[in-house]
Design a protein that fits this description.
Number of domains: 2
Distance between the termini: 13 Å
CATH superfamily of the largest domain: Glycogen Phosphorylase B
Shape: globular
CATH topology of the largest domain: Rossmann fold
Number of helices: 17
Largest sheet: 8 strands, mixed
Structural class: alpha/beta
Helix content: 40-55%
Radius of gyration: 22 Å
Strand order of the largest sheet: 5-6-2-1-7-8-9-10
């Protein structure tokens, strides 16, 4: 197959070396390794590091079967901003212009949240008779409405009418809608006005690192613990991620404060940075049982994941996430999960014995869940084993990617 992957925000294979590959980078690599030809269309702007990779359009050939087309688009500092909209529109415009002079693909896989680029890819596909899958990784523009207080959400949807119309056009004109969860697929089908014959769910999963990478990270544990002043002989309850609006960081700190005098064998490790960093630092001031690591490089995160005992999938009450990356990452390392998302994640945790659920925003609820797991080595061992088993059988990203490649191959047959 000749495959185009159209994305705006994911780390890039062969170009971004400071972080792990996610859904689209893994797909591009695996397609090329299995003999397919891939063009990955993306932005010069690195969404995660907030910096330009190149100061002009750039074409990078990584292997005979994999080429990355980077389109120069304006930088933005805030994820919700007019400058990000300008970035997205520039990216879509440049893709539409360049696509016309590029060899026609057999199938296109275009990711949402960048509605503008995905709409441009779907328009190209329709004009040229190419099957296209619109992949829902975030429910844009619904995500903007969900963060508003419930009484004014209808007003938010009214303001976002043009973006909902854009999403509807994308879903109605796509050969297939894929999504990272059943909740997200149901949302897309509702926006479109019905299910499609080729719609499917492919979870995010997690790509487990190579054995030598894991071994190197493990070997650096003593140095890492000394560097971040991590106390020895304590059970580590780990939050690894962004300090952003949709994460329940303040509740973790409040739970740590509740347990600070009664559970001295517990250490809460908050690894990350983001918009709420200063607020988090103020809330955690003086708490010896909370360690703030700041942003970590990839090797350090692997060291921490191997050292931890509990994984905190802590999301705010109105968080739009459904089945994000974090629970699968914890599963891969056998970390019992304490999560706050309802729906599919809660069902997964409770039905499969992966850990515990707590009420978002309720520090007493979280403190009780953490204490119960920390106090029971037997319960932790059971949950850890179930996490590893479920990861190996369902949520290994390479397994999911193989299924996704088969789906794209099936789509190419719809136009023959």
């Amino acid at each position: 197959m000749n495959v185009w992957i159209c994305i705006a925000y994911d780390p890039l294979p062969g170009i971004d070396h400071t972080t792990r590959l996610l859904r689209y980078g893994t797909l591009a690599e695996q397609l090329a390794e299995h003999g397919h030809n891939v063009v990955l269309w993306t932005s010069t702007y690195d969404h995660w590091r907030k910096s330009q990779r190149f100061d002009h359009d750039q074409s990078v050939t990584l292997s005979p079967g994999l080429r990355v087309e980077l389109l120069h688009a304006p930088a933005y500092r805030r994820n919700i901003s007019l400058t990000r909209l300008r970035h997205n529109r520039t990216l879509a415009y440049k893709f539409a212009a360049r696509a016309r002079s590029t060899a026609r693909p057999d199938v296109i896989f275009a990711g949402i949240p960048c509605l503008e680029l995905t709409e441009a890819a779907v328009s190209y596909a329709r004009e040229n008779g190419v099957p296209v899958a619109a992949d829902v990784q975030d429910v844009w523009p619904e995500v903007y409405a969900t963060i508003l207080p419930r009484p004014i959400r209808p007003l938010g949807r009214l303001i976002l009418h043009r973006e909902f119309t854009r999403a509807r056009r994308i879903f109605r004109n796509s050969t297939s809608v894929t999504a990272v969860s059943h909740q997200y697929l149901s949302w897309a089908q509702e926006v479109r006005g019905g299910a499609g014959a080729h719609d499917a769910v492919f979870h995010l999963g997690y790509r487990f690192p190579a054995a030598d990478v894991i071994a190197a990270a493990k070997a650096g544990e003593a140095e890492f613990r000394a560097r971040i002043r991590l106390p020895a002989d304590r059970n580590l309850a780990l939050f690894l991620g962004q300090f952003a609006a949709s994460y329940d960081i303040e509740t973790i700190i409040a739970a740590a404060r509740i347990l600070s005098s009664s559970a001295r064998n517990l250490q809460f490790v908050l690894a990350g940075a983001g918009d709420k960093m200063e607020r988090v630092q103020r809330a955690a001031a003086g708490l010896e049982t909370v360690t703030l690591t700041g942003w970590l490089d990839y090797r350090d995160t692997l060291t921490l994941l191997q050292s931890a005992h509990i994984g905190l999938a802590a999301y705010a009450r109105r968080a739009p996430q459904s089945l994000p990356y974090k629970p699968f990452e914890y599963m891969a390392f056998g970390l019992p999960i304490i999560g706050s998302l309802g729906g599919e994640l809660r069902e997964l945790i409770e039905a499969q014995g992966l850990g515990a659920w707590y009420q978002a925003g309720d520090a007493t609820s979280l403190a009780g869940a953490v204490l119960a797991l920390a106090s029971s080595p037997e319960q932790r061992a059971f949950a850890s084993r179930r996490c590893k088993e479920l990861f190996a059988s369902r949520y290994d990203a390479l397994l999911i990617t193989r299924q996704l490649i088969a789906h794209l191959d099936q789509l190419t047959r719809t136009t023959r």
